[in-house]
Structure to design on (315 residues):
């Protein structure tokens, strides 16, 4: 990475996608202490969103001016990175993750009467693929056609959260094995015993909810941190497979045949590979549950933060 000078309007200059094949990724967890491929970087480093890089750099440069730094990460999952930050940034840092509404699980009396929870109740254990591509970006029309056709092949049970594409998905046929909704209580759905996998855009909150539920992932990252989040799931934690191919603005069409084969293989829990992935997912789930238990890292760090600001206020 080079600089175009000190002028405030100048942005950092980066190698092109053709020139940039790998970047050393230091100061990260041991599983990340290796060469990070360019295609695994957040999309602010290349492509259409590269023009917002200066905003990210500006925001990061202001961190030392803050009084406290709160992270919604789970300490046990990123302890090396968080400890490195504590050694680098001269302000108190607290990891309060997972910062998801786990305390509301099963508490909502109306949830049991919800139509989509009733639908899940009628499905076999670990048989449903939950699909959510987020609410900000959509795949191309051609790719959406392939995804819809691919997941409808072979009769896999599908719970699909979709907004703009809902009518298109429903036109392909729902039936008893498929449900399409515009919104749901995602964490409660993911934790339902009939859900066996998560097709995700890899937003960080979705990743945390998925590992809290102990699920495997099919990843289809679109932009920003979704790209390295996908890498973490697939390559580092080894609890999923990547659907999308390409980098940044490059969209390589994944055919319906490829998607159908991948989904069928993904939902087959009897393979040795699937069993090993589920074992690792169960370990991550246990890590999350320990973090949110009494005396876990989330409670400990939140209490420490409250104590810190209370003492500062008293002074």
């Amino acid at each position: 990475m080079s600089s175009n000078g000190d002028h405030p309007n100048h942005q950092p200059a980066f190698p092109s996608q053709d020139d940039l094949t790998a970047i050393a990724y230091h100061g990260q967890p041991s599983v990340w202490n290796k060469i990070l491929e360019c295609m695994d970087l957040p999309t602010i480093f290349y492509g259409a969103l590269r023009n917002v890089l200066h905003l990210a750099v500006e925001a990061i440069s202001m961190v030392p001016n803050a009084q406290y730094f709160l992270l919604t990460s789970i300490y046990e999952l990123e302890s090396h990175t968080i400890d490195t930050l504590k050694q680098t940034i001269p302000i108190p840092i607290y990891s309060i993750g997972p910062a998801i509404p786990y305390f509301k699980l099963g508490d909502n009396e109306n949830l049991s009467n919800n139509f989509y929870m009733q639908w899940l109740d009628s499905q076999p254990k670990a048989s449903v693929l939950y699909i959510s591509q987020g609410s900000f970006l959509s795949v191309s029309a051609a790719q959406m056609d392939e995804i819809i056709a691919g997941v409808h092949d072979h009769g896999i049970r599908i719970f699909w959260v979709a907004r703009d594409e809902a009518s298109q998905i429903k036109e392909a046929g729902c039936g008893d094995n498929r449900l399409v909704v515009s919104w749901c209580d995602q964490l409660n759905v993911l934790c339902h015993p009939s859900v066996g996998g998560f097709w995700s855009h890899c937003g960080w909150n979705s990743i945390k909810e998925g590992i809290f539920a102990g699920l495997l992932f099919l990843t289809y990252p679109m932009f920003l941190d979704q790209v390295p989040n996908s890498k973490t799931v697939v390559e580092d934690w080894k609890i999923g497979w990547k659907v999308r191919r390409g980098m940044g603005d490059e969209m390589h069409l994944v055919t319906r045949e490829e998607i159908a084969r991948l989904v069928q293989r993904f939902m087959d829990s009897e393979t040795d590979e699937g069993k090993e992935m589920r074992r690792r997912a169960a370990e991550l789930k246990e890590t999350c549950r320990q973090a949110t238990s009494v005396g876990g890292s989330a409670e400990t760090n939140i209490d420490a933060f409250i104590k810190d600001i209370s003492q500062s206020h008293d002074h």
About this structure: The first strand starts at residue 22 and ends at 24. The CA atoms of residues 269 and 275 lie 6 Å apart. Residues 1-12, 17-35 have pLDDT under 50 and may be disordered.
